[in-house]
């Protein structure tokens, strides 16, 4: 007999996944969230914007990329949700926006309720850390297009910022200080190169390397650090000129996006020690320094450009919040480039 289930779509499994994730999603709320009994849309009370003089809505969308393949191979599904929120919400933080809400999309070959609940639960937990609500999402079963154990995730987020408090390149001046915030690891960029190294060297996900405290696979799945609330706290001091989220393209390429064409950022490699995980990948994969620079964050996940007289206080604030931070460099007159000294 021909049926939807015979074609590979299990509606009952999808309903079971929703039930399993409900309690964790409930923790990712804000007071402005309005329940929609139909479940077709997420609702957010826009009267919250009345307190703004001129509110600007900021939006961002992203995915986790090929890191999901490592999660699949290791059978660990709750960390990639943190990666998704970090990639989406920390982009909003760059312009000074407060994150409000997020939605997610999961495509899979077969709905395994426990696996989907772990993924969405991780997204919800990370939304709570970021201070935003998870107001909706979609899980789509794609039999025949994806293998039963394959999946991919994506999401979109919305934030708000006062128009005259918008951060960006136009605020940056020569003499400003460049402050680095440590990453938790590779975050969610460069995993195609990581997978290539795994496929062409003796390294395996189960490998125990002397420079690492955990098996390589566990190190590689370390979730992306979420900086949104730390950036907001720093923004409230009034000292921030601009932020740069260090994602694909590496430190210099991303930082250059936050500079006007009248200045350069000069960075000091000696200001920090690149974490061991990056050194392992560079050594085993024989990856040139230039390739490392443009592929990975090398231990710097977010950068703040601040007024020079506020640099010390900014470092104190970040370190008090548990964020390892240091002076990475300075802004000088130039042409909009970021380079290592």
TrEMBL record:
<dbReference type="GO" id="GO:0004637">
    <property type="term" value="F:phosphoribosylamine-glycine ligase activity"/>
</dbReference>
<keyword id="KW-0436">Ligase</keyword>
<dbReference type="InterPro" id="IPR016188">
    <property type="entry name" value="PurM-like_N"/>
</dbReference>
<dbReference type="InterPro" id="IPR036921">
    <property type="entry name" value="PurM-like_N_sf"/>
</dbReference>
<comment type="similarity">
    <text>Belongs to the AIR synthase family.</text>
</comment>
<keyword id="KW-0547">Nucleotide-binding</keyword>
<dbReference type="GO" id="GO:0046084">
    <property type="term" value="P:adenine biosynthetic process"/>
</dbReference>
<comment type="pathway">
    <text>Purine metabolism; IMP biosynthesis via de novo pathway; 5-amino-1-(5-phospho-D-ribosyl)imidazole from N(2)-formyl-N(1)-(5-phospho-D-ribosyl)glycinamide: step 2/2.</text>
</comment>
<dbReference type="Pfam" id="PF02769">
    <property type="entry name" value="AIRS_C"/>
</dbReference>
<dbReference type="InterPro" id="IPR004733">
    <property type="entry name" value="PurM_cligase"/>
</dbReference>
<keyword id="KW-0067">ATP-binding</keyword>
<keyword id="KW-0658">Purine biosynthesis</keyword>
<keyword id="KW-0963">Cytoplasm</keyword>
<dbReference type="GO" id="GO:0006189">
    <property type="term" value="P:'de novo' IMP biosynthetic process"/>
</dbReference>
<dbReference type="InterPro" id="IPR010918">
    <property type="entry name" value="PurM-like_C_dom"/>
</dbReference>
<dbReference type="Pfam" id="PF00586">
    <property type="entry name" value="AIRS"/>
</dbReference>
<dbReference type="InterPro" id="IPR036676">
    <property type="entry name" value="PurM-like_C_sf"/>
</dbReference>
<dbReference type="GO" id="GO:0005829">
    <property type="term" value="C:cytosol"/>
</dbReference>
<feature type="domain" description="PurM-like C-terminal">
    <location>
        <begin position="173"/>
        <end position="336"/>
    </location>
</feature>
<feature type="domain" description="PurM-like N-terminal">
    <location>
        <begin position="56"/>
        <end position="161"/>
    </location>
</feature>
<dbReference type="GO" id="GO:0004641">
    <property type="term" value="F:phosphoribosylformylglycinamidine cyclo-ligase activity"/>
</dbReference>
<dbReference type="GO" id="GO:0005524">
    <property type="term" value="F:ATP binding"/>
</dbReference>
<protein>
    <recommendedName>
        <fullName>Phosphoribosylformylglycinamidine cyclo-ligase</fullName>
        <ecNumber>6.3.3.1</ecNumber>
    </recommendedName>
</protein>
